Amino acid sequence: MKKKELNKGDLRVRRTHKLLLDALLDMLQNQSFDKISVTDICERAMVHRTTFYKHFEDKYSLLMYGIQETQKRFDKEGLADLEGDDPREYYMNILRKVLENISSNRRLHSLLFSSEINSVSSIIHKLVAEDIKRKLKHNENLGAKHAVPITIVANFYAGALIALVSWWYKNNMPVTIDEMVSYVDLMINSNPFPPSNCH
User: Fold this and answer.
1) Tens digits of per-residue pLDDT, 129-156?
2) Which CATH fold would you assign to the domain 11-62?
3) What is the DSSP string of the chain?
């Protein structure tokens, strides 16, 4: 489901991509991805079906394009200044950047969190896990020792963070970004299950 080869510098191509993606995002506000057809997208975007298929193989290809654009935007806006050797500070900063990005770009992120397609969750999970693995490997090269294999750690935290951020988004952000970061910091870096006083 790869986007067909096109001249990326062509402004008409960019405009068409934007029209189609905007149309998909608009419809995702009121209906599930499974119920949306290519015809629906084209009618909303006022783009001919023939033009659609010159750019994308199907609606799944357009969906993947939207995810890639979301990732690029986040990488550009959020990760450039987060390098550092303290894993705790690094990941708390990433979490904050993710929450801030979602809060300020809700419409775009509806593409990620409103879709019920398993492939979307898998792609997001892979992206997050790979970033965590990269950071853990960097720390390992600096001499850090990990009691648990990096791949297991990365996939565990990727799954937990994605589930939590998805819950936060779908429930209209019931706590502040500062509170979310604080709670996650407590769960990861301290004991969230203190001993019970019951005997």
Assistant:
1) 887 888 788 888 888 788 889 999 889 9
2) Arc Repressor Mutant, subunit A (1.10.10)
3) -PPPP--TT-HHHHHHHHHHHHHHHHHHTTS-GGG--HHHHHHHHT--HHHHHHH-SSHHHHHHHHHHHHHHHHIIIIITT---S-HHHHHHHHHHHHHHHHHH-HHHHHHHHS---HHHHHHHHHHHHHHHHHHHHHHHHTT---SS-HHHHHHHHHHHHHHHHHHHHHTT--S-HHHHHHHHHHHHHS-SSPPPS--
